[in-house]
Amino acid sequence: MYIPLPNHLHVEWSIRALDAGKHVLCEKPIGLNAAEARTLLAVARRHQTQRIGEAFMYRCHPRWERVRQMVRDGAIGALQTVATEFSYDNRDVANIRNIAAYGGGAWLDIGCYGVSVARWLFDAEPVAVHGVMQLDPDFRTDALTTASLTFEHGRATVDCSTQRAPGQSVVIHGTTGRIELDMPFNPPSDRPTTIRFYDRSVAHEIVIPPRDQFTIQADRFNAAVLDACDVPVSIEDSLANMLVLDQVVPSVID
Length: 254
Prior knowledge:
Radius of gyration: 18 Å
Largest sheet: 9 strands, mixed
Number of domains: 2
Strand content: 25-35%
Distance between the termini: 39 Å
CATH topology of the largest domain: Dihydrodipicolinate Reductase, domain 2
């Protein structure tokens, strides 16, 4: 079962689906906070024959798989920083992304991508998290959130907004090079995407053929069900992501 409901319904309906004997692919974020994620994890562990995963579709795209392998292979030297920017402009009072009770706001909706990317590339959890949220005076959801994640061997920054010009990018710096990605989370499925790779002062462009990351995600989740193997993003990984997201939520300014 695929659960695309508003954020505040993710855990409730994931549990209902598991209890009904269904496999579950739930949209990100897995819940509103780590406490909800822990509750879901406990239920999932009672249903060992069923698969449950979080729909971070970007991890299934061949471009991101290539980038992660480049980082692991030392193509840019030792990984030092990951900088993520993601924003759009949505001021519709009726939109679920602007309703606080539904888990609206930039941090849960799109900041979760930057946290997920940083943890995935560093293959570690941050040892310190600092950030600040600026709330919309009417919606009371965060319209702008900026966070810094400190890892043992590097740092990541995550910047997200629901009230500025649309855009998204990721820049990955190592000791000898860097990688730049445009439209890292919503790449077009009908044309090639690129990886800009800088090896010291030499620029390269790696072209990735068109692929639909949502189709790949669905196929891999189906394979996990049929072959009883791991889903692309486990519920344990989801909880770890929520633990990081939670650390920024109390840091609010009006």
